[in-house]
Amino acid sequence: MSSTERDGTVATDAAGTDGGSLNGDAGGSAPESTDRSGTSGLAAGRSRRAGDRIFESLTTGSAVLITVFIAAIAVFLIVQAVPALAKERDGIGAFFTHSGAWNLNYTSNDGGWMEFGIPNLFFTTVLASAVALAIAMPVALGIAIFLSNYCPKRLVRPLGFMVDLLAAVPSIVFGIWGMQVLGPSLGGIFEWVHGWAGSFFLFQWDQQTSPAFSTSRNVFTGGVVLAIMILPIIAATTREVFIQTPRGHIEAALALGATRWEVVRLTVLPFGRSGYVSGAMLGLGRALGETMALYMVIASAPGFRWSLFDGGTTFATAIANAAPEFNDDTKAGAYIAAGLVLFALTFIVNAAARTVVNNRK
What we know:
mainly alpha, globular
């Protein structure tokens, strides 16, 4: 072997040795790097899973806590109402049928009986709330359509804020305004309506029992005040649904030559109908439980005749009126029983609104 060949062999061996060493070093370091990154990812995964578990526990606990609170309220109302219902003169069924004056003086009645019922409270509450819905729903729909489709963009935020601001006005302010300003202002209109439609049961007026037209502290005025109070709830809910109408639907209608009103009628309204109905149900739930405004606006009346020009007593105002009697647990139980019916009624209304929303999804 020549000197040149020996030098090539030595060079080749050295290169192979060095390459093998380098490859070995690289190959040896790769698993170590992989192990470190895998350990780091595993630790991060464990940390994330722990955080998820904590968050899930907190949210679940919050949901359970709300359910427990609602159940506790229902149990309290039932426990407090049962002793009073047990003293009903004609049995518990009379609680749902007795429409006369309440007699809660069980200490002076032979046998310790009481006589009370909810028909007048129920029908007055429903009538005032129905008037409020009849006024508020079309106005809220118009507001929602205008803000979501017609209003200039620079005015959407301030006008929407002004509507939402109505929800922040205290009930007592609405009550004072309704009693001192709205009622006397509507008196002339009510008197004119009674003049040509007084034979219709909704517009009957009795000089002996109905509030004077000069004050108009009647169910109709109470319904108007309630309508203004629930207007922002219905309008805000409806508008939020309307603006979520798929843009593709709107553009398709425009491409077919639809006018702006036709776009609203064919795309926006069908898409947002469930939101509109659910917003109305939420507003109804708000109206059913209103106390202070109706306490000041609607004059108390013992009976119920389905007339909008009569006074009346709702569930909430009856309970507020009877506050001085709550030092007697048995008498208070009669009003708590009425409150239990109101609780069930509002719960049913809000559950119906939730059902409408879920069905739309």
